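SEQUENCE WITH STRUCTURE:
===
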Amino acid sequence: MVTPTVTTGDDATAASSSVASRIASAVGTLLPWRGVVAPWLVSRLLCAAIIVGARSWPFDAGLRFRGFQIWDGVWYTAIARDGYGALPVGNLQTRWPFFPLVPGIMRGLGDLGLGDQGSMILVNQLVLLIAFAGVYRIAQRHASPRAASLAVWALAVFPASFVFTMIYPSAIFLAATVWAFIFVEDRQDLAAAGTVVVATLARPNGILLVVALALALRSWRRIALVCGPAIVAAAAWCGWLWDRTGDPLVFYSTKSAWPEVSVIDLLTEPWRYDYAWPHVMLAVAAGWVVWHQRRRLPVAWIAWTAVLLVPPLFTGTVGLGRYANDCFPPFVAAGQLLERWPSWARRTAFTLSVLGLVFAGVMVIRYHRIP
């Protein structure tokens, strides 16, 4: 005769405690305080203060919070609320260059009654926390824990990192791309495929991720599994654009209405395009540190940095500062490099970076420089 097992209150409590302990351990592993949460919290508070302060100064009308929604945030909000609008005509700026993921999320948040703009800003902060966790995890695999922590801090206070706190796809793009590489390394190909789709629908250059990942996958079957859905998603988006506008690449052709400046323009008339120089300088810094550490980085990472930062030198340098910010390999490389520096040099580097962050944020939010 089998005696039935009776679960006592103490057994249930112990089981519940065990589950809670495992969850806490998993969260602690994913989000270590010193390596991920602290740089995220400190940098986001700093960036929020910069954005609000730059917008509100001299505080005669109290605090103003519209700085979170300016620039591309205006376009994403308009798309979320009213769609892509009329067909592009002539050389006028339109909504068509912007990809659908962020306005789609905002539309969903608005339909749920959560408010599209405020909720999107909050979503970006939470997604950025996951992005920092990804940078920390992948940096640990290719460097020491200390270098991984330095990598996250370098990313958190990079001069362009205030954009993560605004209505931009940058936080989502960073999270999707870094976790795509992590999932590929872990051979979790279905999860990797999902992140590549997210990157592709977030920004036009997201599809370039398939080029870099192909070097990491090294198998036609895995390439098809990981990259195929993103190619289908990009084709579907282009097909929809073709149906609506007659131009499957309208997101590219209509960008001519924006102040696009190539590196050739900068070299021939450097005084005319002063607003583009900061973008190029940040991208050059990111590219240099990757090149300097190239022997310690996977080839696919170097390729990802190249496909993200080199084409805009010829198609339009405005935005390069953000692209450098959204590209994780330079910051892993920076962590590797900073670890070998003396403490005074590290402190100096981070101090200069924070000052650059404050300066860039004020210039963009208060003086309307192009981010």
Residues 36-365 form one domain. The first helix runs from residue 9 to 30. The radius of gyration is 22 Å. The chain has a mean pLDDT of 93.
